[in-house]
Amino acid sequence: MSAITLTSSDGVDISVERTTAERSVLIKNMLEDLGDSGEAIPIPNVNEAVLKKVIECDDDDNRRKTTDIDEWDQKFMQVDQEMLFEIILAANYLDIKALLDVGCKTVANMIKGKSPEEIRKTFNIQNDFTPEEEDQIRRENEWAEDR
After folding, report:
1. CA-CA distance, 64 to 87, in Å (whole number)?
2. CB 59, CB 23: distance < 8 Å
3. 19, 85, 104, 131: least buried by Cβ within 10 Å?
4. Contact at 8 Å (CB) between 34 and 21?
5. How many domains does the chain have?
6. pLDDT digits (tens, 9 = 90+) for 9-63
7. What is the pTM of this model?
């Protein structure tokens, strides 16, 4: 197996097996364009900590065919909220569908069954709606409420 070098947004070079890096459609396409030049591949939208976490991700797509998150993925996604959202952004940028799915499922589980107020508290979101706007939104979306 051959290793390639990825350069994170903060300028850190990270050596990774080519097959691991090619889980990213973006990196796979870049490697095809560059050929075997041996040049480091710049990853300008992902910092070192997030890139290392993304590389660490297990690539067992068979586990990801369900809406449930298996034990390995749950442990992998036990990170602070900032890192979780950085992983989701990196997976989207790098075009790693399986990792993006796991990240989004993790967020979905965090908000499942919660009220809008609880969700705002969980993600530290400021409520900028007036009471009238909130009432209108609730009326327009009554169909989505659990009864």
Report:
1. 17
2. yes
3. 131
4. no
5. 1
6. 999 999 999 999 999 999 999 999 887 778 899 999 999 999 999 998 866 554 4
7. 0.77
